[in-house]
Design goal:
253 residues, alpha/beta, Lipoprotein-anchoring transpeptidase ErfK/SrfK, transferase activity, cell wall biogenesis/degradation, peptidoglycan synthesis, LD-transpeptidase
Length: 253
């Protein structure tokens, strides 16, 4: 009798899908899919088989608890519980964080890249930039490989990831001014376009990255590489003469 009741419910769901749209799509477990087919016969229904693994929110990564802690500290990515156990809410928050910072795949797994980025963002102390009390200041934290924008001494654009000069091409620390801006600059030495270019010293400046920013072995030739969305935002804020402050030193350079 129990099996008949389950089949009846499945049949009702299938019929509702068919009536509602002509061709229904119903998510079922393997066993339930078979029961539904037997119950409704040749009804024009697509049964999507969902295994238990696929139904789970997402896997628990090696750095689950650490990432939960950093996300709670950073804020803005949803509710997380710092217990080292993956939940639907944790998964959603981690995916949102990964999507924001261009981490691929954005599948909610707290792996080494997600851990490293979260740690860098959480470790960034915006007060260290010593931004101007009036106007905009673009800040670059070489030590944590992050960047942010201050306005009138307060955070205007929150810390995000960057990639600065590698060994032999170190991005210099200091206070500079934006002195050239073009939406698309051609680099003669490296034969590549640099989108949303904002130069602040020599041949160095902000621009959209042309490669995956989270490849740890990579480095720039002195420029401040940005994710596409950040490069576009920085360009919309920037103007000739605005201050750029570069602090710290990239590890290994």
């Amino acid at each position: 009798m129990g099996g008949q009741r389950v089949s009846a419910r499945l049949a009702a769901a299938v019929v509702a899908a068919v009536v509602g749209g002509g061709l229904g799509v119903v998510a079922l477990t393997p066993a339930a899919a078979g029961a539904a087919v037997r119950t409704v016969g040749a009804a024009p229904v697509t049964a999507v088989v969902v295994t238990k693994a696929a139904a789970a929110s997402c896997s628990t990564g090696k750095y689950q608890k650490q990432v939960e802690g950093y996300l709670k500290q950073i804020g803005g990515y949803g509710t997380v519980t710092v217990d080292g156990k993956q939940s639907a809410a944790d998964c959603k928050a981690i995916k949102k964080f990964q999507s924001r910072f261009g981490i691929k795949p954005a599948a909610g797994l707290a792996g080494p890249t997600t851990y490293g980025v979260a740690k860098r963002i959480a470790a960034t102390k915006t007060s260290k930039c010593k931004a101007k009390k009036s106007g905009y200041t673009f800040c670059v934290d070489l030590t944590n490989q992050t960047t942010y924008v201050m306005k009138n001494g307060k955070v205007y654009a929150k810390p995000t990831v960057t990639r600065t000069g590698m060994k032999g091409y170190r991005t210099p620390a200091g206070s500079f001014k934006i002195n050239k801006r073009t939406k698309k600059e051609w680099s003669d030495p490296y034969d590549v376009w640099l989108p949303y270019w904002q130069r602040f010293i020599g041949g160095r400046g902000f621009h959209q990255t042309t490669t995956y920013i989270h490849d740890a072995w990579r480095g720039s030739h002195g420029c401040v590489n940005l994710l596409p969305s950040d490069a576009k935002k920085y360009y919309s804020i920037g103007k000739i003469g605005m201050t750029v402050k570069v602090i710290g030193r990239r590890p290994g350079t």
